[in-house]
Design brief:
Blueprint lengths: L2 H18 L5 H13 L17 E2 L5 E5 L7 H4 L7 H12 L20 E5 L12 H17 L5 E5 L1 H10 L13 E3 L5 E5 L4 H4 L6 H15 L4
Length: 231
């Protein structure tokens, strides 16, 4: 392993340790731990993760996917972002169809999922009540995504899942004025990296047809194109 790769790997491991022990936001700490204690009936026999979630994926990724926050009975249960919930079912199926993932489902940390050329993080690392983080909670958490991006030196594209993630990425990258969010919206940063907007793969979007499988696939196909330097 090259010196840069070893330093990067060590940095990601150190950041993961810091993320999972974070208690900066009292409201989120109380909620995530309550959910982990009370559980959903279908998962009564499982031990919930109940802590903040680090990002995961390919350290050599050129595409960084920024989500909103873990699902209460998805990532907060399984210990991996977008794992074990309906949004994740849509996301990983698309990543598989577009050759970013070796399989179409993500149900647990030990399920064999491998990501290639993509790394997944979130604007907020704890599940929030009603899926609505407060602005202060977002601001407390965004430095974790900033540090991931510093360590993931090959990233050329940030795919923002939903308007919340788009706004968070704009803050993260110092974009003023904030560009308008839309599905497949693109904003090129001064350093040549790009933000790409995507409707969030939540049930309210997928059940209503606001987001379809071809629409989601188009985002990742475009991300691959932009990451490769093609305009």
């Amino acid at each position: 392993m090259a010196v840069h790769e070893r330093t990067q790997a060590e940095g990601l491991i150190a950041l993961e340790r810091e993320v999972v022990t974070c208690r900066r936001c009292p409201r989120l700490v109380e909620w995530r731990e309550r959910v982990a204690r009370e559980k959903r009936a279908a998962y009564r026999a499982e031990t919930y993760w109940g802590r903040p979630l680090p990002g995961f994926g390919d350290p050599g990724a050129r595409v960084y996917v920024l989500g909103l926050a873990p699902a209460a009975h998805g990532g907060n249960r399984t210990g991996r972002i977008f794992t074990g919930d309906r949004s994740g079912d849509w996301l990983f199926a698309s990543l598989h169809r577009t050759a970013f993932a070796n399989q179409a489902r993500s149900v647990s940390i030990g399920d064999g999922l491998r990501l290639e050329d993509v790394f997944i993080g979130a604007a907020v690392r704890c599940c929030p009540p009603a899926n609505r983080p407060l602005p202060a909670e977002r601001d407390n958490c965004l430095p974790y995504a900033a540090r991931e991006l510093e360590l993931l030196s090959r990233v050329r594209v940030i795919v923002c899942l939903g308007a919340f993630a788009w706004d968070a990425a704009a803050r993260l990258m110092g974009v003023r004025p904030k560009p308008r969010f839309a599905h497949l919206a693109e904003h090129t940063l001064p350093d040549g990296r790009a933000m790409i907007g995507c409707f969030h793969p939540s049930q309210q979007n997928t059940f209503t047809g606001k987001l379809t499988e071809p629409m989601l696939d188009a985002v990742f196909e475009r991300a691959r194109s932009r990451a490769g330097g093609q305009e």
